[in-house]
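[Archive record]
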Amino acid sequence: MEAEPGVVVTGVSGRMGRMLVQEIAASDRLRLAGALERPGHDWIGQDLGLMLGGTENGVIVGSDLGAALEGAAAVVDFTAPAATIAFARAAGAAGAVHVIGTTGFSDAELDELGSAGTGSVQIRAGNMSLGVNLLVQITRQVAAALGPDWDVEVVEAHHGRKVDAPSGTALMLGEAAAEGHGVRLSDVAERGRDGITGARKPGAIGFSAIRGGDIVGEHDVLFAGPGERVVLRHMATDRGIFARGALRAVLWGIGKAPGRYDMTDVLGL
């Protein structure tokens, strides 16, 4: 019987890293082939099972993705933009599937990410959940139907330790609304208001970010017109939905032609 495809998990000590390890262990279609942490991390050289508070599992935490990919088909990466770009180079050299849940990229970093990953199947999404990606599609359709005369606001809430704002998901939703209006988000986005700001600009797409507690992720897209409002909402209560979506992307990506993809491709949307 052919062995299950191997997956390397980066940032394995973090919340998403731990969740990914848990979901891979529960899967009968994938196996954990490697675990990575940043150079100098206390877990480097240690057995991952012990570091996670269990028994030895034979997976030694390392920091070299190129070496880890020698026995793997894919890497799943929820880290930071600079690290993700470096991982993209290693994935491209190995011809591996690179599933990216990292957020907070600048436009220049996104360009660098694409060129760094040449040779790999690169699947990137600001959110890996099925519900969010359906919401993105609906947002695009509603924006197109209502038109730019309706004001659009994207409101998102996350836990207090999230480091980027607006969230990657909020930006996905803003991009969808902008596409529905036939404009570029960078030309119409309002990402902060304070003081005497003046009246709202016609056609603007606004963003508001809430941070606190242990909120997994909540996103509203508000369409406000004269005398009425339409609110589209997604609420995540289990971080496992992101890990399961990422692993679904891994399975979809194996055997695909090298290139850049997103979750709408994975989900056939």
Residues 6-124+239-266 form a domain with the Rossmann fold fold (CATH 3.40.50.720). The chain has two domains: 6-124+239-266, 130-236. The CA atoms of residues 63 and 71 lie 15 Å apart.
